[in-house]
Amino acid sequence: MKTLNIFWIFTLLFLVNVSSLAQQVQKAEKGPFLLKNGTIHTITKGTYLGDILLKDGIIYEIGAVKTDVTNITVIDCTGKHIYPGLIDSGSKLGLAEIEAVSVTNDFSEHGDFIPHMKALTAINPNAVAIPVTRVNGVTTVFAKPEGSTFPGTGALVDLFGYSPEQMTCGSERVVMKFPSTGRRGRWDRRSDDDIKKDAEKALKNINEVWASALAYAKIDSAAGAQKQTWVKNNPQMDALMPIVKGSQPLFIEVNSKTDIEEAISWVAQNKLKAVFMGVAEGWRVADKIAKSKIPVITGPIMNTPRRDNDRFDAAYTNAGKMSKAGVKVAIRTDNAENTRNLPFNAGFAAAYGMGIDEALKAVTINAAEIFDVADKYGSIEKGKIANILVTTGDPFETKTKIEKVFIRGWNIPLESRQTLLYDEFLERNP
Amino acid sequence: MKANPNYFNQILKIRMMNRIIFILILCTSTLAIGQNVLIKNGTVLTVTKGTLAETDVLITNGKIAQIAKNIRKEANYSEIDATGLYVMPGIIDAHSHIALDVVNEATSPVTAEVNVGDALNPLDVSIYRALAGGVTISHAMHGSANAIGGQCKTIKHRFGEINPDNLRMQGAPRTIKFALGENPIRTHGEGSKIVPNTRMGVEQVFRNAFSDAKIYAKEWDDYKNGLRKSSPEYNLRHETISDILKGNILIHCHSYRADEILMLMRVLKDFGVSKVCFQHVNEGFKVAPELAAFGASASVFSDWWAYKFEVYYSTAYNAAILTRNGVVTSINSDSDELIRHLYHEAAKTQRYGDLSDDEALALITINPAKQLGIEKMAGSIDVGKDGDIAIFKGHPLSVYAIPQMTLVDGAIRFDINKDPDDMRLDINPSEKFSSFYETEKSQENNGCLQDVSEMLMQESYAKYMRFRYSKNHSH
Fold first, then answer.
1. What is the ipTM of this complex?
2. How many CA atoms within 13 Å lie on the side-chain side of A134?
3. Does the pTM exceed 0.80?
4. What does CATH list as the number for A86-377?
5. Contacts A–B by Cβ distance under 8 A
């Protein structure tokens, strides 16, 4: 036992050492910054030529800025394009350092009903993949737990900061996996009947949890009214209260056609606010989703069709088909280390039917609205958080260069371990 | 008016007949090579000889016969109007596991005797999906469970052919899979408690196998030269490895770390082998000068990293660094998903390392052709080469590019405007739809360690199984 402990200590020391090795070398600069004469893609209020003043971490002024602010750093953006930072609405970034090394993974806790597990606690602000991601224009991600029916509470975070407090966007959301009637893979050799039974059993469990949560809410409200405190600790139920009481949506992972239909009626029955995640077969029931008014986070877009008989581009076209039907769509990579590919996922969605404008919304304002932070995120508007990109062109286009990334008004050095390795090894010496 | 139920029955029957006829056509058609087709007025990306505006490409008997403006169409030629479209050579994937029924013979650290060519599956719908990404040739590889794995097969994506032999690319040299690092170590050292359990062990597996094969070859030579009377016992494993040592089989070696790459080059040098393509080779950028000096080539991911420890110190600039150091480099998929957008993966080298259009396109055309030894037959639009063509709307390096049509030997195997949605060749008559897969199928299928877990379903593998089936990558 003792040797085992020593082993773990060494493993941990080693990993701590590893992840502290490679961050950006330069420090971020605070500003204020005046971005002069760029093409501003506001997302919500059109595209025009103008200036933006970034000060105190926010978009302080926009348009033709005449400022008397002193110590200002002016950045000429002539010929450049200015976009809001891109938001990945579903990722494991910061929760998974090296996927095959289990001790570096923090997205899956034991237990089937553990909505109180907080991703924000486990997000590593110094994960090597964070700088790798943000230099590609992704400034904000929803880092979420997974692995069970109620695996925990995900957190929307900005990709700069040295503590959860510095990174959080103030939006944490409980995640649920809806019982699945799909196969888990080629190796899943359950009979159709068994799959159905498993799903029914899982739904029964969820319904029992929900009945308990409703009862808990009643007692909790009554107790609150009498200014009495609970004697029994029940963090799981406490975590569900904002959803039961209607102040927060439940984020539900659901993918196949029948499961989506089931989930829509389950949400209606329980009179919940909900957001659907995954929604791989949303295109088969796009009208029904639109009618339910449930917003959708879908992705990855670069994916194989989920059925062998599906058209080759089923996953590419899914986001566009739902968006055209009137569903509010945001896009996710559902990845960790390659969350940087969010703009390319959006580009593929745009090419295969969604259009560039809608795809841009899907990684900016739609995401902000789904996470209830549209007052602060998702577009270039006065007073919003200064998450800004300066680019040579369309941020989805593969060869475009991201020339500046601002997160909360900080000018982020465009360095990551991957660029440092390039600098060191392009012309190796000796 | 009340609909006549018989009417619907008739429609159903007709639909079924159509399907049956479709299948019959597929079954009875002979190998569709030797097509005559004229591709008119496209922007032709030859890759090796620049870009030609408003140019025609003439394919005669399945081979590129002429590249010029205003070629006159002869009677027995079909015509494709490529006005406003980009015409590029069919994309080649130097590392794939599609169209295979099995991938790993994970029973010994050395299994040179097996050949994935014996397990080709022409019905795999992944072949069609690859065509829908402009890919006409792939290198169907054995997995990475063994230091010396099985022999691989270069296949043409003649989707619609049901005879496995029709997938084989005639004239392509023999290739074999080697593997270094974590995969053979985990499979054999951790799994079966035998060598290799370390990168030291991996080196000795090669040295032992090569030395045994040399002795074997000498015994046969002695026998043939009359120096011994009885013939030695025939051994396909030794026979295959001695063919490697004679340079008759190209080595494609799964590898990640710089040290193990250097190790294999030292071993190969000691045994006089000069041709090797390192696969994945995430740390190739660290030893790019050594790779160039040896004449080794590299087939890499555009940006995959951090899925296991040995790829933690990777960079998406790998392909660019290797290219700038003079290493013949390709970008591969190793995935039934990624194979569908290799053109996009190649384009990432323009974000990560500023490669030119032709340099980026070479990564998925002429360079993988060189690595597979088929550069005289494929990999560029050049007179005399196979009529393997991908036609794109939008420049193929743009994120908005959409493949429109893909030709193999001049035969149209993918047509975005004409193909039905359901392109399966093997249909279970009892199911209306095929199963819905909750997780991305490519997470389990078509990866380097496919089949290993199913094969070695022992107690000690239970944890490993969970790892395999819960993680993204298996490469």
1. 0.93
2. 33
3. yes
4. 3.20.20.140
5. 185
